Backbone:
């Protein structure tokens, strides 16, 4: 019985490792690819502004530490005042 429990534990651990590798592997390959922005807009409900080109430019410049702040200042103003 002890041998049976050990085998079950080994099989369970191996299955977990295979599952983890399957989940992590696609993310690792995506790092070499570049982003493609199709559309970006900023606003509220029907009051929206197209910021696609602005986002492309900010990403191309690298943002701040690889991040882009999304606020009225960085997105060119408040598209929905009030």
Residues:
């Amino acid at each position: 019985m002890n041998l049976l429990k050990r085998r079950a534990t080994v099989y369970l651990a191996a299955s977990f490792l295979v599952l983890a590798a399957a989940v992590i592997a696609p993310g690792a390959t995506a790092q070499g690819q570049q982003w493609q922005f199709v559309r970006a807009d900023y606003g509220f409900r029907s009051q929206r502004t197209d910021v696609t080109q602005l986002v492309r430019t900010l990403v191309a410049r690298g943002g701040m530490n690889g991040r882009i702040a999304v606020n009225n200042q960085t997105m060119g103003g408040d598209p929905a005042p009030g």
Observations:
- The mean pLDDT is 74.
- The CA atoms of residues 2 and 8 lie 10 Å apart.
